[in-house]
Amino acid sequence: MKTPHKHAELIKAWADGATIQIDIHGEWEDKTNPMWSPEFEYRIKPETKPDVVLYALINRNGVSAYTEFKTPADNVRLTFDGQTRKLKSVEVL
């Protein structure tokens, strides 16, 4: 039995519409028509996660509970990066 191509599963995913990326010097780049060279590394492009936005009321007594929905009392909006979960911005409302 013949050995399957090194990237056989990725080739099948690409044929089914997946976006493929190639590793170019440690950076992943989208490829619309990959060469499928065994010397290169390929992957399916990961789905990007949306930013997470939370609202809170901050006063001299501390912070109220964080919620995903703004209430009339909330005075702060916090935006976290969807991929890294790190705080991206804080907005005083």
Structural class: mainly beta
Order of helices and strands: HEEEEEEEE
The termini sit apart by 66 Å
The total of beta strands comes to 8
Radius of gyration: 22 Å
Query: What is the general shape?
Result: rod-shaped
Overall residue-averaged pLDDT value: 92
Show the helix and strand layout:
Layout: H1 8-15, E1 20-24, E2 27-31, E3 42-44, E4 52-56, E5 58-59, E6 62-63, E7 76-80, E8 87-92
Antiparallel strand pairs: 1-2, 1-3, 4-7, 5-6, 7-8
What's this model, at a glance?
This protein has 93 residues and is mainly beta. The chain has one helix at 8-15, and strands at 20-24, 27-31, 42-44, 52-56, 58-59, 62-63, 76-80, 87-92. The N and C termini lie far apart (66 Å).
Describe it for me?
The protein has a 3-stranded antiparallel sheet. Strands 4-7-8 form a 3-stranded antiparallel sheet, with no helix packed on it. Strands 5-6 form a two-stranded antiparallel ribbon. It has 93 residues and is mainly β. The model has no long low-confidence stretch (mean pLDDT 92). Helices cover 9% and strands 35% of the residues.
Question: Which characteristics define this entry?
Answer:
9% helix, 93 residues, mainly beta, 3-stranded antiparallel β-sheet, 35% strand
